[in-house]
Queue: 3 jobs
Job 1
Amino acid sequence: MPTQATAPTGLPAVAPLTGLPAVVTPDTKFLRQMDDKIKVNVNLCFQCRKCSAGCPMAYAMDYTPAQLIHAIRLGLKDIVINSKTMWMCSSCQTCTTRCPQEVDIARVMDTVKIIAVAEGVKPPVSNVHTFNKAALRNIKWLGRMYELGMIGDLKMRTFEFFKDMGLGMKMFMKGKLKIIPSVSPGRTLTTWKIFSRVAKKDREK
């Protein structure tokens, strides 16, 4: 496993973080919190930035994946949990796959989202969080994704009833949206058990 790296020609070894104070004081509690939750050694990252180069959503992020990892290593909790980077992550796993140090960056993104929500931080990209809740509720009740039902739930949460209606009709005409969901009591029961175990673990923390 590599332990050293040479920065690409003309690029600094670490992607710069803008807007930082002259003296940075790490939040040690946040560092311990991240260590306990993710079980991923982010200090293995040597800022080669392959994750950022391959990320299809990097253009929409305020900090690239490499910058967010660097901020976590520095213990910059406020920057990390208030960033929109993890909310724009599509969980495609490209960053994790490309990392030469095998840092599970996608898992780090999920963990930061969990911490932010648990601490009551308002997501800077609210529609993404709303979509997540609608999708999880849909899966919890049916054991799998029912697209039309999820869309209805999302519209009721956002009140954007006519947004993307044209696209929705095209998908419906091509058979991509089923009117009747696929129902399986066994599958739903299994899903309920999974959600119950997760809720129990959250209560125990």
Note: The chain is about 55% helix and 0% strand.
Job 2
Amino acid sequence: MSKVFWIASLCAAFLIVVFSIYLTMGEKNMNKKVLFILMPENYQDFEFNVPHQTLQSKGVTVDVAGLKPGVAKGKLGGSFTPNLLLSDLIESDFDKYDAVIIPGGPGSVEYLWGNKKLQDVVKYFNSKGKIVAAICYAVILPVQSGILKGKQATVFPTDEAKAILKNCEVDFVDKGCAVLTDDKIITAQGPKFANEFANEIIKMLK
């Protein structure tokens, strides 16, 4: 009897281990692909690094498109070399992605605000039912694209940023992350909400 019990226990333990591995691999290999758009300078390091690393840790395929060739430099001294150049991509290239993610930072004012080409990229992702996620001052990009008109969003809460939301008929909500599930749009206030921002993207990708 003890031998039979021992064998049964061993089999049960083996099945538990196999099932655990299955669940872990299932979570990590999400079979999803996302595109980050990274400014050439003065991006906010945490707003890029945290979601970038979190998504990779879950098995999401990540591409980073730069606005200029070469190394991008963060506000806090970090750096990253994008593997793509956004100007080389066309709409059919965007079809293979499930989301576009735009980190913010002080460089947003120069590189993202009022950028019609980037607005077209955001509108294309949104028109195809893909996720659009932006944080901090980068939120102004989807706001100015028009995809948030009549909807709620959050942004780094300066008077200037909130005034832009109001002028674009977007309702400012004072919270860390604002998630529009049906529209597949995620906005976040700033670097201290980078983890929440990353987790909301993962939830929406599943």
Note: The radius of gyration is 20 Å.
Job 3
Amino acid sequence: MIYEKSFPKEEMMIGKSIINGNSVNEFYVVGDLENESTFLYKINSLGNIIWRKKVSTEPTDINRSIIKTIDNKLLISGTTKRMGPNTHNLWLVKLDLDGNIIWENGIGKEHYIFNTDGNDSPTEVIQSESGAIYITGGAGFYPSENLPTLQSNIWLFKINQNNGNIIWSKEFGSNDYYTWDLSYSLTELNNGELVIVGNKEDEEP
């Protein structure tokens, strides 16, 4: 261990994800400030805070990860209740390196609930060599409001990097029996194909 750093109480945060900045002397960390809001921190190589920016004040905006895009911007993924077609949607926020929001979007499908709370699937976001953004997550099927089913399928979305809009979406899973399919991670192969890893649970009624 080179060093260990803790922040004072007023800076208390549950860190979720960290990436390198434009140099080896800076890092970006995203997390929840006492589970009440999403914050982005820029810290130096000694663990000291350079600045922090509030990305969202809604406790229902749950961040999961951060990546740096090929156009030298930041992309935070998670889930949100503030925007999108359902009560729980995938959440993408693109920011510049100073922590200013460029765009954000709630991504989902009608009758499907995306949620990173509890035992539900986390989200994973990557950017391909071509610049397209891909985000995956598991979602429970709700045929009508307040009527859940014992079915969860995996969704994959291709997202426009310039505005956060959906280019296309794909669903993976079985509708024949009780199923609980969740995605946990996503990567791109050298040939441009995508691989999703997760959990599959099914049981004949």
Note: The chain has a mean pLDDT of 81.
